Amino acid sequence: MKKTLYIIWQESFEQDESIIDEQHHALLATINSLHYFLQQGHALEILMPTVKLLLSYLRFHNSTEEGILRAADYPHLDEYIKKNEKVIIEFKAICREALFNKEPDLVLRFLKKWWIAHLEMHDNIKLYISDASGQYCRVD
């Protein structure tokens, strides 16, 4: 039986800002890894390092976007920050519930819902994100 990815990367996900796109790829790769191991029958308790990695990476990604938006004078930055803080609190609560009830799919469903909402939020900030300028190291 072939195992499928939980969220498949699509061109429509691209934000035209390389660091954001790279981080989005990494987030989806980690979500898909969690999904893969759950399909393999691993319990969520065993996969908590992956869940903690996701939590850390969500915070890291939010900080990156916040920095870009701050530099671009995004007028709704405080609202953006509050929404992201709420997501972190909700993610922790879902993880606790999933562990307690032995329902790891709660975590995956939350992450898919978050991803969809995150992309919708990007519709509002894309102008500010794509306006970002920065020097990136390129290895040829």
From TrEMBL:
One of its GO terms (molecular function) is metal ion binding. Keywords: Iron, Metal-binding. Belongs to the hemerythrin family. This is Hemerythrin-like domain-containing protein.
